Amino acid sequence: MRLVILGLILSSVLCGQNFKDIRPSPQQLAWQDLEIGVLIHFGPNTFMDREWGDGKADPSVFNPKQLDAEQWVKAAKAGGARYLIMVAKHHDGFCLFPSRHTDYSVKRSPYKEGKGDVVREVAEACRKHGLQFGIYLSPWDRHEPKYADNKAYDAYYTNQLTELATRYGPLTEFWLDGAGSEGHVYDFVHYVRTMRTYQPNALLFASLDFMPNGDIRWVGNESGFANEENWNVIDGYGIIRWRPAEADTPLRESHWFWHPNSESRLKSLDKLMDTHEKTVGRGAQLVLGLAPDDRGLMPDVDVKRLQEFGAEVQRIYGNDLAKGRATGTYAQLPPDTRLDRVVLAEDLNEGQNVRSYEVRVRVGQGSKVVARGTTIGHKKIEVFEPVAADAVQLIVTSSLAEPRLRRMTVHYGGK
């Protein structure tokens, strides 16, 4: 990884740009502060026990008789989510909104006698309960005949993008999934221009190899972890950009859509906490995949697990043992304070600068190193064996420029 970073720095010199001088936009800073989001998959697959729809399902299969978007949003919020991304169209091409450009949508389903709009229901529930709202519109479309013609499909996709960007209020994030798009050429410049026209503050997500001019990048896996060394500034196409990572992982192992009798795949609380430490705790965004069932409700066991997860994050990180005692990189603690983790954060208004550091605690008359790391970025959670100490100090051992710490907090995860 260090060789890769060196290569990025060298390439920035050749491009006339300097890695350490790149800054995030205000929208990117605000988005990174959200930290946890959810991604909702729901559609014909839900009623057919499928993950991958082929675009041939009859719209009549989509018939959720108890759909409650507020229940979804409340469950997400209980899990600590601050934003929600709704899959408006998955790879099967079925639209959960009444698009003017296709009949393959809720218009031809029994749901609300063809007059429903799931995207609107979810958007309104998010606004009511204080979650920011985003949309996923799959570029790959296994139903639409125009997909075989790049130019015709670009017009079709842009028309739907425009519908979504103009009907549902402010969007925090617009998600482009690259799955299934091998060999297809998309007019990303047109997509970006359209989104910027109608939603100038929305951030565009895509993997680096799929879309070069996005604002957020895929972390590179669906297992829910970021690399310990995680830089926000990336050069994938000869242009140095601030492009923070988003790590998506489903609440039920390997299942983005709901499947009957799959409760055993629900991730444990310990697994979710480990995921939190390896995503949010490594400066990336955590997006949990949630899947309403064929009733149109989040399953009770999923709701309970989200509540447990949100409560555990709050129990541990809602209590700063150094509150009012930290001054920059040093925190004086009451004698023999028991702790097992430290949370660090850089002031990203000044860019990301820390390359390596160590965390020391004072025990009696001496001190010892309890953690060493590379990058800090938006947030870094260092977990170590419990220790009783009366001071904590961060020592930056290498940086690109003068490091500026936004905060340092001290916590104990034991019970």
Q: How many domains comprise the coordinates?
A: 2
CATH superfamily of the largest domain: Glycosidases
Number of helices: 9
Q: Count every beta strand, where a strand is a DSSP E run of 2 or more residues.
A: 16
What's the overall geometry?
globular
In whole angstroms, how far apart are the ends?
37 Å
Question: How are strands sequenced across the largest beta sheet?
Answer: 1-2-3-4-5-6-9-10
Radius of gyration: 23 Å
Q: Please bin the fraction of helical residues.
A: 25-40%
Q: Would you identify the regions where 5 or more consecutive residues have pLDDT less than 50? A: 1-15
> Which CATH architecture of the largest domain is right?
Alpha-Beta Barrel
What is the overall pLDDT average?
94
Derived from helix and strand composition plus strand pairing, the structural class reads: alpha/beta
- Biggest sheet character: 8 strands, parallel, barrel
The ordered string of helix (H) and strand (E) elements is: HHEHHEHEHEHEEEEEHEHEEEEEE
CATH structural fold name of the largest domain: TIM Barrel
CATH C-level category of the largest domain:
Alpha Beta
